[in-house]
Design goal:
By secondary structure, the chain is an alpha/beta fold. It is built from 13 helices and 16 strands. The chain has 3 domains: 131 residues, 3-Layer(aba) Sandwich (Rossmann fold); 181 residues, NAD(P)-binding Rossmann-like Domain (Rossmann fold); 82 residues, Alpha-Beta Plaits. Helix 5 packs across helix 7. The longest helix has 21 residues. The protein is elongated. The relative contact order is 0.12.
Length: 407
């Protein structure tokens, strides 16, 4: 399959930032935008009926196996957010569809939100603000603290956790972290040996982990009991990491002095839907509607980051940054045809492909192959004078998943 830019169709949903649309449209692609997150049936119809080559989503659109199977035109999915758990990654992988995300662009926005919420919790500002709005004047200092000198425990010391640690140190906090991976600490922060050790030492615990089988329901009744009396919990990672019922109970019995929650196990599908939670109405509990990365700066940066990854994949076959795909990047010389081949990773595939090229007496300018346990991804540059039959014969191999040509 050879695609000219004007034939590439892009669908962006959930109000993806205009920076993404501008970059993709400037490249000559046909871009359609939807403000809402389509439900599965609607997404299936969109993908099947419109010949979509690129799908751009945010966190609410669920790209199921059924949706992925609805069209053979889909080349890639761009998640204009950090998480990719809303996409059936294994199914996309098997269909040769790489999934890209934005792991860096909203880092600062989330980190700033966490630090502001630590101050809000320490001073009970949410309750005081609400009371004044209600006409009540409760000037109190009991239970209100400076955060300087307090211990912040960061669970998950990745991009966001690292930035949270840097900002916390600027506030004069003592900062510790726990991560299952070995991480290089920045500044005076130091690691602890276990989650339990962190929970027992921290005045504030903030969670910055992906949703995995290991982190789902990671903070429950037992873990909350390990936390210090009068401490605080913050979660801006994934809603299913914290068990809401036990958290509400811990606050009601005053074991925890408060919490700040930005993500929930079940979130409304749109801004017009009602929100229900056991945490509503509890004292010193800050509830926000999944806005950790919702700043103008972060959304613009996410739009640029993901759109750039999609452009590199469409224009050069570059899969660097894809979360479910072998990583391949190769600079493209002039006067070549670039053949992009995704195939089942079984012995002999490269031999078969090279034999096809050899039978046509074609010159290979460059060739890069990367594999994982199930699929291989090959980028091969051949002289632009060679027969167009080469990609057709490669696509006809029994091992072929997807073959595309860039000219």
């Amino acid at each position: 399959m050879t695609l000219s830019p004007e034939r590439v169709k892009v669908l962006l949903v959930e109000n993806v930032h205009p920076t993404a649309r501008a970059l993709l449209a400037d490249a000559g692609f046909e871009v359609e935008c939807l403000s809402q997150a389509p439900k599965e049936d609607e997404l299936v119809a969109l993908l099947a009926g419109k010949g979509i080559h690129i799908l751009g989503i945010r966190s609410k659109t669920q790209v199921s196996a059924r949706a992925l199977a609805a069209t053979k035109d889909l080349l890639a999915v761009g998640c204009f957010c950090i998480g990719t758990n809303q996409v059936a990654l294994k199914d996309a992988h098997g269909l040769g569809v790489p999934v890209f995300n934005a792991p860096f662009s909203n880092t600062r926005s989330v980190a700033e939100l966490i630090l502001s919420e630590i101050v809000v919790l320490a001073r009970q500002l949410g309750d005081r603000s609400r009371e004044v709005h209600e006409g009540k004047w409760r000037k109190v200092s009991a239970g209100c603290y400076e955060i300087r000198g307090k211990t912040l425990g960061i669970v998950g010391y990745g991009h966001i956790g690292t930035q949270v640690g840097v900002l916390a140190e600027a506030f004069g906090m003592r900062t510790i972290y726990y991560d299952i991976a070995t991480r290089l600490p920045i500044g005076n922060i130091h690691s602890v040996s276990s989650l339990g050790a962190l929970l027992g030492a921290a005045d504030f615990v903030t969670l910055h982990v992906p949703l995995t089988p290991q982190t789902e329901n990671m903070i429950g009744e037992a873990e909350l009991a390990m936390m210090k009396q009068g401490s605080f919990l913050l979660n801006a990672s994934r809603g299913s990491v914290v068990q809401i019922g036990p958290l509400a109970s811990a606050i009601k019995r005053k074991h925890l002095a408060g919490a700040a929650i930005d993500v929930y196990p079940h979130e409304p599908e749109s801004n017009s839907d009602d929100f229900a939670s056991e945490l509503r109405g509890l004292p010193n509990v800050v509830l926000t509607p999944h806005i950790g990365g919702s700043t103008e700066e972060a959304q613009a940066a996410i739009g640029r980051e993901v759109a750039t990854s999609l452009l590199k994949f469409l224009n050069a076959g570059t899969s660097t940054g894809a979360v479910n795909f072998p990583q391949v990047e190769l600079a493209q010389p002039v006067s070549t045809h670039r053949i992009l081949n995704v195939h089942r990773n079984v012995p002999g595939v490269l031999r078969d492909i090279n034999r096809i090229v050899s039978d046509h007496s074609a010159n290979i300018r460059a060739q890069v192959l990367s594999t994982d346990a199930e699929v291989g991804y090959l980028i091969m540059d051949v002289d632009d004078t060679v027969s167009s039959d080469i990609p057709k014969e490669i696509a006809a191999l029994k091992t072929n998943i997807r073959t595309r040509v860039l000219t």
